[in-house]
Amino acid sequence: MKKFYALLILALGCMSYSYAQVTVSGAVLSDLEKIPVPGVSVYIKGEPKGAVTTDFDGNFKIKANQNEGVLVFSYVGFKTKEVSFSGNQKLDVLLTEEVSTLNEVVVVGYGIQKRSDVTGAIASVKSENFNKGVVANAGQLIQGKVAGVNVTAASGEPGASQDIIIRGVGSLRSGTTPLYVVDGFALDNSNNGVASNPLNFINPQDIESIEVLKDASASAIYGSRAANGVIVITTKKGSKGRTQINLSMTSGFSTLANKVDVFSADEFRKQVAAVNGTLLDGGANTDWQDELTRTGVSQNVNFSMSGGTEKSTYAASLGVDNQEGVLRNSDLKRYSGRLNLNQKALNDKFNVAFNLTATKLDNSRPDARGIVGNMLTMNPTDAVYVNGEPNVNLSNDILNPLISERIYSDETNNNRILANIAPSYEFIKGLTYKFNLGVDYSMSERDIQVLPYTSATNTTLGSLNNIVTNNNNILYENTLTYNFSTQVHNFTVLAGQSYQKIQVSQKGYNLSGFPDNGVEPKNQIETASERTTQASYAVENELQSFFGRLNYGYDNKYLLTATMRADGSSKFGKNNKYGYFPSVALGWNITKEDFLNDSETVNNLKLRASWGQTGSQEIPSKITKASYTESNTGNDTYPLDPSAIDLGGYPYGSIYTRLANPNIQWEVSTQTNIGLDFSLFNNRLSGTVDYFNKVSENILLEVAPVDPIQPTSKYWTNIPNMEIQNNGIEIALDYSSDKTKDFSYSIGGNISFTDNKVENSPYKILTTGGAQGGGQSGATINGVLNGQPIGSFYMLDFTGIGPDGLNQFADTNNDGVIQDNDRIVAGSALPDYIYAFYLNFKYKNFDLGVNFNGAGGNKIYNHVAMTSFNRGQLANSFNTTDRASEFLNEASTNSNTVSTRYLEDGSFLRLNNATLGYNISPKTIGLDNVMDNLRLTLTAQNLFVITKYSGYDPEINTGTSVGDIQSFGIDYFSYPRSRTVLLGLNVAF
């Protein structure tokens, strides 16, 4: 009997073993196009840990521990599907795509919404549509991708700072920087000690989507920090039932994209003789633009993992990015790590989201302005090397730039952690409380040093400038959200409170006079012989906020959004601590009406209208409070000691450096918007059209007092009645062909027209850009004038060279004398329109995508030409372009006066990037059991630019501010842009 039971148990075991070997396989296709869907998560219901993913051809194979069960198929953009199986079976599964982008979820302030429910002007760019190539920060990802958003890099330097202008420049003092929100955490726009772009700390490959909140309805929930718009960055999260490992590697090669056409050695010899100059002929033939640039090599490696269950999901990544610029000693190295977790408990009522980003950033920067100046002006007959060593006997006693490169360094090390944890609990159905605690900590140390150097003609003592910066940003938020709906009514109510404290401190010192002993100055600070200068500061700012929002929908046709935020900032005086920022928006889903409900042509038609106010608090700290210093000069002291014989014996007196002004108010931007969203022909053609009008008031500036008898030369105040007006039109269109064909394509683009104007300014001109060097230092180039756009060029109108060989200018007021009052407004640095378009093609496993962007109607002041490309420079054996010989009768002593002579057209069209990709099916190379997908890419950036501008690049934004008012459109020896070719490999496991 015992033997019988033993045999029975053995038989049952064999049966169970046979059931464990059940294998289900098959293919997953899209239901409409009948094309394979790779990357679909397939798992047995209740056992998500055993998930597999479909390969490039949509095939899957999964083993089951039971003879029967249910398979779950899920993928982003498709409806999740469950299919029963029995025994060893082969299945053909069709997945249904989401109806359209109307069901796409977009991130808004403190929440998410379906695209069909959005009433504000919100643009969303997903990761698959980002710009490709060597990319250092989020701004580069969306350049040209959003109508009304002008992204302009300061230079061609790796990770260069950017101006991101959303719907025109709306402030003078606070610049154009929008508010950045990363995974629900609002970043601080103040100093973090990094000279390059502060957004470089975020690994672009970690970003899932970027939303741009353009109108006041969308951005007013952020109140006092949203006057320049809001950019919401969402990093990648894990998905339940889907485990994925990705490895991507790229290598790029960058070269100088464009050369300025300066004279060659032979041309130079002829031209110096032609102007009766003094030729210093070194006997060589040198192209200094070639000698002082290099092929920059860039590498990027990124490893990521993601997955999850019904209760928890995770996403983690590690990235290493090393970018070299085309100038030597120009490098950006980033080491990044990210961890995003989400955990559910208590019957899914309790949820915890955790986001962590940690970055180490090393940034080396050359003396770009000096190098670029040398590249363009050095004598091309001078030899670079003599007997294998850098030539130390150059024309005009110039220090060989190769030596300058060796002795100069500017290195910044930045460590940054951004983390937030957000637990939430659903008390009753639809009512959820959420607490968000976050910290953004940044510590930077920057060393700018020059090694001591001595030659027969040059002596450098050696110097060190050390700067240490700490930025600590802490955020506490409490929100309560209630969702409820009836048959036709749908409500979402949000109420919240926020507190944010930002502490910034900086310490620095300057030393000089170091011994030439082979030790870097930063490693022997005690040996400095020259006087030490040192400085430090610390500020603490607090922002206390209360906000609420109501979203209401009736029958999915009629939509209402109303928001209110009250912000209290420590930056403002006691009489105006709080600002209030309301908004309201309406939406009408016209396609839900009976007359369009069954239309086969019009798939979506929605009309939007909004009004709202936002503010700007990006002003210096403490400006509402009085400030003092000590002085014993002039009338600041009195000889209390009769024996005092000079000021050294006089006592110090206290004097004002800043007057108190407790009445300073917020800058307020009021914006109205009317928009239309549409989708036609089975959603193949879609687009948006928006009209906006934005008016900024209470403009805050530091100005000279009207009354000359004042204890300070300047004071901070709101300028009464002064306005900055921006209005314009934005249009975006996209079209996709039939994806069921072997060959498919999509095209699209956007264009926006913006009219910027300053009204009711009491000042003749507020200078925003001034000349530097060349005997013209401080001369106004552009500024703010009443009735004109910001950045208007205000200068004399050049009419030619007179019989005396000197400049001639238009006598605009006909008084017979050329003076400052003859200056004219000769255009603006701000473009009248910006545009972009793309073309994507796909043929079987090949795909090609190209992206163009451009601007028009703007001017650029070529400060390089004014300073360097003139007859006097050429006569003294400095290189120039043919500008120097444009007028045969021009005198070599003619001055380089600020005028329209150096004002050029800044319009351009750029092929921003192009990517050719090939997807290799792992099955064809016998690796289908190892990986899910293998992709090769070839990307080219900045392939060509069509422009009339004679400088390195028309995308200019290196102007320095004057009196803290931002400058635009002046080329001060900008770091040249590169052309890059990038090879990429992506493997999905």
What descriptors fit this protein?
989 residues, mainly beta, Immunoglobulin-like, Ferric Hydroxamate Uptake Protein, Chain A, domain 1, Maltoporin, Chain A, 3 domains, 22-stranded antiparallel beta barrel, five-stranded mixed beta sheet, 49% strand, disordered N terminus
Question: Your description of this structure?
Answer:
This protein has a 22-stranded antiparallel β-barrel. The two termini are about 50 Å apart. The chain has three domains: about 20-95, Carboxypeptidase-like, regulatory domain (Immunoglobulin-like, Sandwich), CATH 2.60.40.1120; about 100-235, TonB-dependent receptor, plug domain (Ferric Hydroxamate Uptake Protein, Chain A, domain 1, Beta Complex); about 240-625 and about 660-989, TonB-dependent receptor, beta-barrel domain (Maltoporin, Chain A), CATH 2.40.170.20. The longest helix has 19 residues, at about 1-20. By secondary structure, the protein is mostly beta strands. The protein is globular.
